[in-house]
Amino acid sequence: MSLDKHEMAALVARDIRPGSFVNLGIGQPTLVADHLPADAGIVLHTENGMLNMGPAATGALIDPDLINAGKVPVTELPGSAYFHHADSFAMMRGGHLDVCVLGAFQVSARGDLANWHTGEPDAIPAVGGAMDLAVGARNVYVMMTLFAKDGTPKLVPDCTYPLTGLGCVDRVYTDLATFVIAPEGVVVRETYGITFAELAERLPVPLLTRSS
């Protein structure tokens, strides 16, 4: 079976090293916070000015003034800190984040990222801090469905949407497979509910196995 968004988030969380400083992008990537081991020492950063953010808040824990960059109520962990928006972006641009997890409209076989605008005349662009994260984080993980609602693939030879960053994506986590963007090409790490042969037939990019 293909993965749902919570299962995808759990896979991403599994691959984040203990002690890492991490930024989670708006949308599905925020779910990763709910799957991080409490004892892993992973520190979550948000571009609206918070460090050591906890999982999403529910019920009586909701504080309308305590939100992540996607305006979702969150909890705070011991040692949480708050600071100016400009300082937060300085952390992003200064190479202080080990991992960022972003959504995407498209990822190219070279690791180019398009996630802020579809290019459609009536679309509302929403770049947020994605460009800063794409160039500032040491590792960029993308979390997305592999195919759009109309069936077109999001992992493509070349992005046709406006680019967020060039050659910045390291890994892609999807509902049907996870991929590593390596110097030699796109490596299929795991598949879910689909075979490698079926995947290769549906995607317009050459695929490699881990043993290739």
What does this structure look like?
The protein has 212 residues and is α/β, with parallel strands linked by helices. It has four helices and 13 strands. A ten-stranded mixed β-sheet has the order 4-3-2-1-5-8-10-11-12-13, sandwiched between helices. A three-stranded mixed β-sheet has the order 7-6-9, with no helix packed on it. β2 and β3 form a beta hairpin. It is globular, with a radius of gyration of 17 Å. It starts with a helix and ends with a strand. The model has no long low-confidence stretch (mean pLDDT 94).
Question: Which short descriptors sum up this protein?
Answer:
212 residues; 10-stranded mixed beta sheet; 3-stranded mixed beta sheet; 4 helices; 13 strands; 16% helix
